[in-house]
Amino acid sequence: MQYTFIARQPILSKDSNLFGYELLFRDGPNNSFPNIDPTLATGKIITDNFLNVHNRVCGDTFSFVNFTYDSLIQEIPTLLPANKLVIEILETCQPTDELLSAVKSMRSKGYHLALDDFIPAPEWQRFLPYIDFIKFDISTFPIKKAQSIIRKLSLTKIRFLAERVETHEEFQEAILAGFDLFQGYFFSKPELLKNKKLEAAVMNVLHLFKQTTKAPLNYDVIESIISRDLSLSYKLLALVNNSPAIQVKINSFKQAIAYLGEEKLRKFIALLAITNVGKDKPQYLYGLSIQTARFCERIASETKVADSGSAFLTGMFCYLETLLEIPLSFILNELPIEDEVKAALLGNETVLGKLLKIALCYEHADWISLEVLATEFSLTENQISNYYAEAIQWTSELFVDAE
């Protein structure tokens, strides 16, 4: 099992109330600044935090996340919900017409934007009507100089954040200068958080990325690739859950893909391609999850007692609690899947629940319970054995393709 490391540093108001956190990528447990491409770091924050729904570390507060020029131009931030995200425009970004267009577009969609480590320059003036926060690094940009800019922009709705506040004196000076928000070691060092994560098979990600080069997208092929990879399946549903005003309960991956639409789907796949190069092969429980999904799907398809897509979803997610070491009820509360699937995964004696129990009884060699369930669904021992053997073969072929 792989782990994800992310640091969060609190951002406070002048009354020392928590306003939000800046999220900082870490590549190991030492909580040091990693030597990594900024685009990759941002991608990992998104895929390891926002697309692993159990790993949200900011609660109901704002998440401040750095975005590079390329990710802003592609509007990668729009994969995430707008209400609690602050898009930080890095100081390395050039104030081009292309960037301004992206900023205007994201602002019109309700996103909050910040200029990080701001150094005033005439070419940034046209961006200011679309900016919600300006961050000054007071270790390199004098507070008195920042105060002058704050006064000039006092009639705007921009809020000003002082970074690298190291002492009580700096905090008090920044308050007097007109800063609204504060961040630095005086309040707290970045707190390192470690969580388990699900890894996608590299070849599955590459196959997905190849599909994005084609127009129009082949949704059947994309569904086929996603449905054979537990990590991709989980992240897809997390992304759907992050979508604004979701009104549907998902009962198949095809439905989830259709709900996202082509634009978001392309961004999602591009982000996965950036962050999943060089990963290990799927481990045993990954394969078992897919095998169980196929087994449940086959039984549902043959008996017609339940929707085969819902049965596949049920089998796919039956080992999430074991993989992530997080209560299943918490995970399911965060995923937009239909209630029948959730009930089955929680052990309820529904039709889907009994189909899953057939699969688990067979895997655990609980022949007495299996016989009772088989009789209820008019299944013979030979049929069940054949479905199970077919599921093993199907899963094995998928993993060969992913190598």
From TrEMBL:
Domain spans labelled HDOD: 198-383
Gene3D superfamilies hit by this protein: EAL domain, Hypothetical protein af1432
Transmembrane regions: none
Domain EAL: 1-204
InterPro entries: dGMP_Pdiesterase_EAL/HD-GYP, EAL_dom, EAL_sf, HDOD, RNase_Y/CdgJ
Entry-linked PANTHER family: CYCLIC DI-GMP PHOSPHODIESTERASE CDGJ, PTHR33525
Protein name according to UniProt: EAL domain-containing protein
